[in-house]
């Protein structure tokens, strides 16, 4: 993780959603770029992440400001 400046020990194993045998492989509302999960131990870091998401996305979510 050179880009984030994190050692590999900070990373979790990635997961991919798999189809249930009952789903008939029909997915609705797919996200074109996928999703990621970030776990942080400091409130200030979480606030910076949420602020960056809002800035890049061009929206404001009031619940994230509390």
Folded structure, characterized:
The longest helix is centred in the C-terminal third of the chain and has 15 residues, at 43-57. The chain has a domain at 36-66. It starts with 42 loop residues before the first helix and ends in a 9-residue tail after the last helix. It has one helix spanning 43-57. It contains one helix and no strands. The protein is mainly alpha-helical. The model has no long low-confidence stretch (mean pLDDT 76). It is extended, with a radius of gyration of 16 Å.
User: What does the oligomeric state look like here?
Assistant: single chain
What order do the SSEs take from the amino end to the carboxyl end, as H and E?
H
> Structural class of the helices, strands and pairings?
mainly alpha
Average pLDDT for all residues: 76
Which sheet architecture does the biggest sheet show? none
State the end-to-end CA separation.
31 Å
Helix percentage: 10-25%
- Count of helices? 1
Q: Radius of gyration in whole Å, from Cα?
A: 16 Å
Strand content: under 5%
How many individual β-strands? 0
The shape, in one word, is: extended
